[in-house]
Each structure stands twice: as structure tokens, then as C-alpha cells.
Amino acid sequence: MTNEQTAQLILERALPLFKRELNVQYRFKVVLDHFDEQFNFYMIRYKPGHITRVTPLHHVRSSWIADLEEILDRINQQLKLTVVFAGFEGIKWNSKNTYIQRPKRDAS
């Protein structure tokens, strides 16, 4: 499956979950699974006073940051949501040379 097809599949699964409601926050969460060497995509729906809903959207069997960057760019063209990353501590984007997720500080 190409990156374009992957992004389209994620969008097809995410768009029905995205409803413009009052006081509701939507986010994408991308998790790097080091054990299976894959990216996991989730949709998070948060409304104060309600249960936070996390819906799995898709997983991509790749650990190439360039692939992730292309997929997120294609998704962001249609659906502009905040993206939260997990498991990317100390890893940099290929094109921007900035950290995806800041490295954790030492507690010393």
C-alpha cells in the first residue's frame, strides 16, 4: 500500500468520527511501536465532563520517518488537527531536522 493510499484510508476512517460540536477537542495520535516496527494512528475525542474516546484508525508497517512525514502531510491537507506523538523521543524529521518529540530530560 502506498503512502497516498494509506493517508486516504486513514482519512476515510477519521472523517466520520470528526463532528463539529461545541467544546469538543479532536487530535490525531501517532505512536511509534518499536517492537513491531510500525506506526499506529489514533483519533482522540475529548469533551470536558465526558469520557475521552480513543479510536484506532490504522497501523503502518514501516518505521521510516520519511513515510510518516508524507502520510501526515497528505492527511493535514484535508483535515487540520493537532497531532500528538508518542515513542519518538530524540528522533528528528528528515526534511526539517527538528525533533518530532523532545528528548526527555534527566531528573538529576
UniProtKB/TrEMBL annotation:
Protein name from the UniProt record: Acetyl-CoA carboxylase
Q: In which organism is this protein found? A: Apilactobacillus bombintestini
